[in-house]
Amino acid sequence: MMKRLFFLLLAAVGAASCDAGASNPVAAALTQTDGRDHRFAELPKPLPGEAVATFASGCYWCTEHVFESLKGVRTVVSGHSGGTAVSPTYEQVYRGGTGHAEAVQVYYDPKVISFPTLLRVFFVQHDPTTLNRQGPDAGDEYRSIAFYRTPQEKQQIEAEIKRVTAAKRYANAIVTQVVPFKVFYPAERYHQDYFKNNPNDPYVRNVSTPRFNKFAKEFPQLLKPGA
């Protein structure tokens, strides 16, 4: 909810064109109005030997930064997944009805960091026990989802859930959805690297930074130098 309120003015500007679709035709007008680049980001092609993973764990501004800080991760893209709408805009997603959650797509070298390690990071850097909510952000677009691309990844996700549950890390039951990956739509360009590019943003200072610092303190051995 806090992040939604942050964009209410922006939504009002673009309300008449909320059905932007894949071509995002209102991007130029919105960019001229609010100074942000509303064109959709591009998905990079995986490099030879590279693997891809997709997770949803609340606001992607912080989630993206967490995964980008990991050794073995080349890049991370913020976007939307888990729903039915094609190429949704940010405004469409937070208005509801798309079925999508804020998600990140992680491009990594499995020789350096494994999928099980990414899962460990995933379940530590957010609260997987809160249904349709992360901190101040409420709505199904903030739900927790671990996407799998192979039967092995599904087994690894389920095994990690059992491990975390047995360790009693959280007082409540894990509500993370475990679903097959279908499609990932990159968010607008101004959402990419938001944490790094907007360190003085109130949301970044008060929500994203404490969340990242908590994770970094627990797993310093996984971080890139200077992360």
Note the main attributes of this structure.
single chain, about 230 residues, alpha+beta, six-stranded mixed sheet, two-stranded antiparallel sheet, 8 strands, globular
Rounded to an integer in angstroms, the radius of gyration calculated over CA atoms is: 17 Å
**In terms of per-residue confidence, which ranges show pLDDT below 50 for 5 or more consecutive residues?**
5-23
Choose one word for the global shape: globular
Please give the number of β-strands: 8
- Main β sheet profile: 6 strands, mixed
Which sequence of SSEs, written as H and E, runs from N to C? HHHEHEHEHEEEHEEHH
Query: End-to-end distance, in Å?
Result: 28 Å
Q: Specify the structural class.
A: alpha+beta
The strand line-up of the biggest sheet is 7-6-1-3-2-8
Quickly count the helices.
9
Strand content: 15-25%
> What does the average pLDDT come to?
89
Structure in a nutshell:
With 227 residues, the chain is an alpha+beta fold.
Question: What does this entry look like structurally?
Answer:
With 227 residues, the protein is of the alpha+beta class. It is 37% helix and 18% strand. The chain contains nine helices and eight strands. It has helices spanning 2-6, 8-14, 27-34, 60-68, 90-95, 115-124, 151-167, 194-197, 202-218; strands at 51-57, 73-81, 101-108, 133-134, 137-138, 144-148, 177-180, 184-186. The strands form two sheets. It has a six-stranded mixed beta sheet with strand order 7-6-1-3-2-8. It has a two-stranded antiparallel sheet with strand order 4-5. Helix 7 (151-167) links the parallel strand 6 and strand 7 (177-180). The protein is globular and about 50 Å long. The model is unreliable at 5-23 (pLDDT under 50).
